[in-house]
Design goal:
It is a single chain. By secondary structure, the protein is α/β, with parallel strands linked by helices. About 50% of the residues lie in helices and about 15% in strands. The protein has 10 helices and 9 strands. The longest helix is centred in the last third of the chain and has 23 residues. Bound molecules: 1,3-dihydroxyacetonephosphate.
């Protein structure tokens, strides 16, 4: 199936109340886990790269590998820039071949977020890529700001985003206390924007029954970063401990790590697809 954008996978997902898993990766093995999961589950997958990898050449360098992996995969794969910080960064990702980008102006005043996201959206569409914006703010700790329905409508109209990240009570990273998800707000957003795929950031640790309900209310993309990267780290630590200081070529040492990442991603892809 190969490289696709949101436009090929979300309209049907939205109609069928399914979501696609979006996994943040920073290296080949993390990406391979997600690709293997897509193939074993026969489901689309989104592989995304944080904006900080674009503070150096890492994000663009990785694109070469990710695009080749997407093209070889027998399922649809989106390669996406996560939380783009500027038009320049969005441009860099598009030039590197990413099929989708996010611009995150959720901490800016509304008008400024709308204006910059609209510019980024035009740029993305000119490159044949898809665009995600964010309204309301999903924070790293307790500072999330819920998405207002009125602002979401105006933002969607003014920016032509292909997917909209909304804030309904999740946060990025591990939770210290259980999150309180505002399902009513999610439902209102979904009813106000019945065609627009919604995105849930902060998937790590969000109770699966909450994720399920949110998917019924229009969430089509669930972002998973912390727990997926942690699976990679914990598996790597376990394999190194097994070696107890002895040498093993890195590719061999990494095989079980990829297996663990693939199992993690497969379990979530299945759940988000309602299987
Ligand atoms: P988590 O780290 O909580 O999974 O959040 C991921 C995310 O939303 C990436 O944009």
């Amino acid at each position: 199936m190969s490289l696709v954008t949101f436009k090929e996978i979300f309209p049907q997902a939205r109609r069928e109340k399914r979501a696609v898993g979006a996994f943040n990766v920073a290296n080949y093995e993390g990406a391979l886990g997600a690709i293997r999961a897509a193939e074993s589950e026969k489901l689309p997958v989104i592989i995304q790269v944080y904006m900080r990898l674009f503070h150096s050449d890492k994000g663009a360098d990785l694109a070469g590998t990710l695009l080749r992996m997407a093209q070889r995969c027998n399922q649809p794969v989106v390669i996406h820039l996560d939380h783009g910080e500027s038009i320049e960064q969005v441009q860099k990702a598009l030039e590197a071949g990413y099929s989708s980008v996010m611009y995150d102006g959720s901490r800016l005043p509304f008008e400024e977020n709308l204006r910059i996201t609209a510019t980024a959206s035009e740029l993305a569409h000119r490159h044949g890529a898809s665009m995600e914006g964010e309204i309301g703010h999903v924070a790293q700790g307790d500072d999330s700001v819920l998405t207002s329905v009125e602002e979401a409508i105006e933002f969607a109209r003014g920016t032509h985003v292909d997917a909209l990240a909304v804030s309904i009570g999740t946060a990025h990273g591990y939770y210290h206390t259980a999150p309180r998800i505002d399902h009513q707000r999610c439902q209102e957003l979904s009813e106000a924007l019945p065609e627009l795929p919604l995105v849930l950031h902060g998937g790590t640790g969000t109770p699966l029954e909450d994720v399920r309900k949110a998917i019924e209310h229009g969430i089509c993309k669930v972002n998973i970063a912390t727990e997926y990267m942690d699976t990679f780290l914990k598996s790597t630590r376990r394999e190194l401990e097994k070696l107890d200081g002895k040498f093993l070529p890195v590719d061999k040492m990494m095989d079980p790590v990829v297996d663990d990442c693939a199992a993690h991603a497969a379990r979530l892809l299945r759940f988000f697809a309602g299987k």
